[in-house]
Amino acid sequence: MEVRAIRPAPPTIDSAAVWHDAENGSYGADLVIWEQVAERCEGPVLDLGAGTGRVALHLAARGHRVLAVERDLELVEVLRERAAARDLPVGVAHADAREFELDERFGLILAPMQLVHLLGGPAGRVRMLCAAAASLRPGGEFYAAVLDDPLPPLGPPTADTPAPLPDVREIDGWVHSSLPTEIRIAPDSITIERLRQLVSPTGRLTDEIHMVTLDRLTTATLESEAELCGMRPLPRLPIVETDDHVGSVIVRMRGPR
Q1: Which CATH superfamily includes the segment(s) 167-214?
Q2: CA–CA separation, 191 vs 251, rounded Å?
Q3: Rounded Cα gap, residues 217 and 190, in angstroms
Q4: Of 72, 122, 215, 251, which is the most exposed, with the fewest CB atoms less than 10 Å away?
Q5: How far apart are CA 11 and CA 85, in angstroms?
Q6: Which of 75, 69, 60, 65 is nearest to 23 (CA)?
Q7: pLDDT averaged over 10-residue windows placed end to end, the chain, 257 residues
Q8: What 3-state class would DSSP assign to 185?
């Protein structure tokens, strides 16, 4: 895979990449698992929904060849810059995880964090799963993180459930703070509301409400959908809960023979 070198440039102050880093970049409970499976599975590794490279850069820094797939063009450019700046073996494809077609085949495909909850329901998930199955080498494996249980509703803080802390990132003197303020549970979805606040170097504050809606699903549902694409389930793996993040479960599937 060839990494296209482009002139390094930091993300703009209020860019999608900066907020993506603030809200996702500190999460690391899954990284040791991805390290272990990448060591065991024959490469290369395909990272779906790669964002700004949290997983892809981590694995590449440990000697694994990685192709990252991301649909947001701004995040793609930032990831390319970061890989080139560190001279890491990361290729980057600007594509939707539900529609990608690649010439290369992979020994390991990863769908970290909340990707499978962001694909527009069963139809979108099956499209992604079948694209992944078609991209696996014979005997290759697919791993996806799943929030198997719904997130607890976010209410007023108590002695047992203190108020959540904001995710914070500083760049060039600008402070980005993203605080979860509400979690709404519906039969088929989970909506997370965040208060995004931006503080300038002079102390000027601006804020906005940002919402993301996740599809609810179980590990069993995802396994059944993957079987429609010719994959076979393997034993699941837990991702432990941390002080800042809920736990999740990794669904493991072996690709078509």
Answers
A1: S-adenosyl-L-methionine-dependent methyltransferases (2.20.25.110)
A2: 23
A3: 10
A4: 122
A5: 14
A6: 75
A7: 38 74 87 96 94 97 97 96 96 96 96 96 98 96 88 58 80 90 90 93 93 95 97 94 80 93
A8: strand
